[in-house]
Specification:
Elements lengths: L1 H6 L6 E4 L2 E3 L12 H12 L19 H15 L3 E2 L5 E2 L1 H4 L25 E2 L4 H9 L10 E12 L12 E12 L5 H14 L3 E2 L1 H6 L9 H4 L8 E2 L1
Parallel strand pairs: 3-6, 8-9
Antiparallel strand pairs: 1-2, 4-5, 6-7
Length: about 240
Amino acid sequence: MLTLCNKIQLGPASLLDANTLQVTVPPTRSDILHPVDIAEDIAIAYGYNNIVKRVPQTCTVGKEQPLNLLTDLLRDEIGRAGYTEVLTHGLCSVHDNFTALGRAVKQESAVSLSNPANVEYEVVRTTLLPGLLKTLQHNRSASFTSGMKYFEISDIVLADNKHAITETIVGAKNVRRVSAVYAGPTSGFEIVHGLVDRIMTLTEVAPGGDYIKATQGAGGSMGEEEQFRVSRDGWTYE
């Protein structure tokens, strides 16, 4: 392995112990960004066809991550509700992420770029709203009669220095969010509210006590909607 490292410009290399290999990455190997890149280069130098095939000692079945599965199911359901999915940039300006939304500027809560290409790419978004609002802005020529409904389910990035569990922690974490906007000749509150109720029903989250009281019939009887609602214990929203 040490010979292979010298062959691919990763020398001098040395074995610190039975499980640790130390290599020297020269300035000419700017493609080396992670230990995985070193393992890949060594495998290429050794030759993939020379690696002995073995049956794995563990029996596993590959499948989609639960979060991604839920995301795909929600995309399908929200699309059926008449909303159009958009995919927007993960980077935005400080003005778009905070000031334009009426939020106090807290750059410590966002991941900032040290050398942004321009003012539009200063921070990693902490909310999906800037991208959706810009989508409405750039589609003003579209038909406005029946309203414009857009949604996005994607990741935002939040600063996180608390849960540092590895040496390679970068002080940030990805959080999956869903956001939707409506613009039309009416306020459309009931349209967005209906979408929220639909998402909560699909994820088996029940409304809080005030909502249930408002739907009760005479004598405090539970409404038909609540009689057949499927929800998880302790999962509620207000």
